[in-house]
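For reproducibility, we list the full input for the glutathione complex.
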Amino acid sequence: MLRLYDYFESGNAYKVRLLLHQLDIPFELVPVDILEGETRNAAFEEKNLNHRVPVLEWPDGRCLAESNAILLHLAEGTDFLPSDPFDRALATQWMFFEQYSHEPYIAVVRFWHFSGTVGEHEDELEAKVARGYEALDVMERHLEGRSFFVADRYSVADIALYAYTHVAHEGKFDLDRYANIRAWLERVASQPRYVGIEDEVGTKA
Ligand SMILES: N[C@@H](CCC(=O)N[C@@H](CS)C(=O)NCC(=O)O)C(=O)O
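The corresponding predicted structure, in tokenized form, follows.
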């Protein structure tokens, strides 16, 4: 069975839980407490030299890290990845956008609030929040007249962007002025076999 090294509050790990569940792929969940430094030991380093969850491990010991690489691999040959080559490229475009222009701001500010360390980052906070809103502005404009990010159907691009957008309020981002994003969040949450970030899925290792 596949094994997912996971941290419950991580949006990056949640992306993988959500897609595994939507694809009805059984998996074992291995909780890793990042606040206790559990990714920073020799045993975990064998799974991912970069000391981060999520990591998906195959029964033969192969490991894959980076949430969006895992999504793309799992979605291969399924309806979650567009079959048209240009649409696939657009899906990856939005997934790179998520990692470079969205997650480093929205996820990081949320983590500072969640871990109680926001006070230690006062000098960086305003700039990070501004860049987070820039990402939300881009999403809002793209979603004007569209149901989903690519080819008007739900795909891994939506999963990648949904993970931290739907909990952006936990980083004190205000989504009130983003009507298109709010409607899209509802569309994602109404997909078949949707599970929330707080829902327990997978079997415990
Ligand atoms: N680009 C990576 C980011 C992964 C990441 O930042 N993981 C965090 C949790 S969200 C982590 O494991 N941090 C542990 C650490 O830095 O020690 C991905 O998309 O998977």
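The radius of gyration is 17 Å. The pocket of glutathione is lined by residues 7, 10, 12, 34, 39-40, 51-54, 66-68, 99 (CB under 6 Å). Both points were considered when choosing residues for closer inspection.
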